[in-house]
Design brief:
This protein has 232 residues and is of the alpha+beta class. Helices cover 19% and strands 31% of the residues. The protein contains four helices and ten strands; from the N terminus they run H-E-E-H-E-H-E-E-E-E-E-H-E-E. It has helices at residues 9-17, 47-59, 87-99, 170-177, and strands spanning 19-22, 26-31, 78-84, 103-110, 118-128, 133-136, 141-152, 157-163, 201-209, 216-220. Strands 1, 2, 3, 4, 5, 6, 7, 8, 9 and 10 form a ten-stranded mixed sheet that branches. 33% of the residues are buried.
């Protein structure tokens, strides 16, 4: 009996199709809404374990597979997610995140048009652990992002977002405070939920220098099919 479970043919194929980049050190994956990156209190299998099982099955590995998690996405968020296949890569990616050398671009759909087509938002955010929610408050930590309106549809507005800080639910909280809650995000003021239970926020692109090879890494995730009317 192997260390990891055996994936079904359909699950194996789905995982393979969502790998955006892979080498001996990294695996960059297109996360779906509802998937968890690391284990939590729900007990649901996280992507880190699913990917271990996938690699063990694909490569015929009889022993343990390393899959470190430097980059987390909230469960209702989709898009680019980075995993480390070696401890060296994990350590260096963690340091790049701390130093701001790993650049993430997010896309968000909102039902309301922002007051400006482009702006930098600076708010103080405080996290309520019991509610798993963040609020704008005077005693909070400074939180900064920049957004740009890049597309409009009949009903929604697509914002591209650059984060300058990494606070809990930062994009969700700051856009809501601006009067533009993310589509489907009931927790932060959206009028209705999305059919899949997620929110229309995705990690669209990630850019950094490879932690081992020192080459440029630039990976973009495809727009979810549920984002109707949005062009790539």
């Amino acid at each position: 009996m192997g260390v990891y479970r055996t994936l079904s043919e359909a699950e194996f194929r789905d995982i393979a199709e969502r790998i955006l980049l892979e080498d001996n050190h990294l695996l960059i994956f297109n996360k779906k809404t509802g998937e968890i990156v690391q284990g939590d209190k729900t007990g649901d299998e996280p992507l880190s374990e699913t990917l271990k099982a996938f690699i063990a099955q694909r490569d015929g590995k009889p022993g343990q597979v390393f899959m470190g998690v430097p980059h987390r996405l909230d469960r209702p968020v989709s898009g680019v997610c980075v995993f480390a296949k070696t401890s060296k890569a994990l350590e260096r990616l963690n340091e790049m995140l701390r130093s701001g050398d790993l650049h993430k671009t997010y896309w968000a759909l909102t039902a309301n048009r922002p007051p400006k087509d482009s702006d930098t938002l600076t708010d103080n955010l405080v996290r309520n652990e019991a509610q798993n929610k963040s609020y704008v408050a005077k005693n909070g930590k400074e939180s900064k992002l920049q957004y740009t309106l890049i597309q409009t549809t009949d009903r929604y507005f697509l914002l591209e977002i650059q984060l300058f800080t990494g606070r809990h639910h930062q994009i969700r909280c700051q856009l809501s405070h601006m009067g533009c809650p993310i589509k489907g995000d009931l927790k932060y003021g959206a009028r209705r939920s999305n059919p899949d239970g997620g929110i229309s926020l995705m990690a669209r692109r990630i850019q950094f220098i490879h932690p081992v090879k020192k080459t440029e890494v630039d990976v973009t995730a495809p727009v979810p099919s549920s984002w109707k009317g949005i062009e790539e």
